Amino acid sequence: MLSRIIKSTALIALTTCALNAASFNAQAEKDKAEMIKYFEAKFQDPEKNKNTFFPYSSEDELKNEYSKGLKHDDFGIGSYSYAKDAREQYEAIKEMPPYEDDIDAGEVLYKKPFANGKSIATCFPDPAITNIYPYFDEKRNELISLTQAINECITSNGEKAWNTKKGDMASLQAYMALQTQEAGKKVDIKIQSKAAAEAYERGKEYYYSQRGYLKLSCATCHVQGAGQRVRNEKLSPMLGSVTHWPVYRLKWGNLGTVERRLSGCVKDQGQVPPKDTSAEMKELLYYMSYISNDMAVDGPDIRK
Amino acid sequence: MATRIKAKVKKDITEVKALANHPMLSYQEAKRANKEANFITHFMAEVNGKVVYEVSTSQFLSKDPYMKFSFKGAAKGDEIKITWKDLKGATEVETAKIK
Fold it and tell me: Does A182 touch chain B (CB under 8 A)?
């Protein structure tokens, strides 16, 4: 009980300290800079960095299976940026990616009129906007994720909301993500108020909290463990983890949203995942997206 | 259920990438999913009446098979015709222009 009081006081003190800074995103900017520094240092030369970053890998593995000299934007393609063999497979499949039909289906959905004559295009006149989600809506005092915004558009026009993990939602997001990518947009998340900064901090806390039956946090695998091998694959990096959604995952055999993957991962850790449009899920996405600010949007994409 | 075809000619070699939409269920997979087994058994590409690629396939290929092949002797603007047949007898023909 006492330790909980101390922990929450410390957290409040830390938050207040951070917020006394000139702008609300000062702490977030620091976190982002630290994360970029960490990843660039880690993958500068995995072979040389064995003792600092890859204590469990063999020298042979580090020499032959990892790319080096990676910079900020390189991490957008996830573990394929440093896993050489997986990169080859990835590039081969990108020649004729299996999500092309889904993009076409998404375009149809974007323009298809609802019963009342309006369409998704009415809500989102410019489809190239996936890079600003999630954003903090000051008036409603809540975060708005892309999935939520799309479903709110649909239900406010009298239609039934879509499944938030796959199907039409994923196809539409694939179309919008491609437009965003082709427009050359970068992830552009803003923190412009105290409430937004607090939401960011809650997302960060979720990311670093240990959970499930192995007491792993997101960071254990995707920051500390990024690049390390689990069975036959190398763990993906936290930096750039949100740039490429929605993703055609070979394991699923179809396209899925970022919420599908995040909740799947939490479930794999043995915990009930937060609901797709819950505050917890959106805060987590907010934190992850802010850290990937200024990276090119490269969705939709393919993953194993 | 259209087949996507990308065909490009460079110098004298035409490279074709084709993705066929097909569930490709092997007998074992079909039994597990309680569906009927079905997979592409024959895949053929023709340009200007001549067969440039022909392959007998079976249940070893997975869903939405992707074929990539190259050949000589075609020019830009020629039409490539891809035909495939599956176990149940369905056929699909798709054409595209070589760029």
Answer: no
Q: Is the pTM of this model over 0.80?
A: yes
pLDDT for B29-74, tens place per residue? 899 989 999 999 999 999 999 999 999 999 999 888 999 999 998 8
Beta-carbon separation of B19 and A253 below 8 A: no
Beta strand A229-230 pairing with A247-249: unpaired
**Count of domains in chain A?**
1
| Count of the separate structural domains present in chain B | 1
- The CATH number of the domain holding residue A257 is 1.10.760.10
ipTM of the complex: 0.77
**Contact state of A95 with B19 under an 8 Å Cβ cutoff:** no
DSSP string, A18-83: HHTSSSTTHHHHHHHHHHHHHHHHHTT-TTTTHHHH-TTS-HHHHHHSB-----GGGGGGGGGGTB
CA–CA min distance B16, chain A (Å): 11
Catalytically annotated residues of A: 265
CA distance A154 to chain B (A): 28
The domain containing residue A237 runs over which residues? 91-97+186-303
Q: Which of A295, A300, A232, A303 is nearest to A72 (CA)?
A: A295
Range of the domain at B34: 4-97
**Nearest by CB to B4, which of A93, A100, A253?**
A100
The tokens describing A124, both together, are 């989102």
Distance CA A102, CA A166 (A): 11
Residue B56 sits in a domain of what CATH number?
Answer: 2.60.40.10
Q: What are phi and psi of A228, to 5 degrees?
A: -80, 155
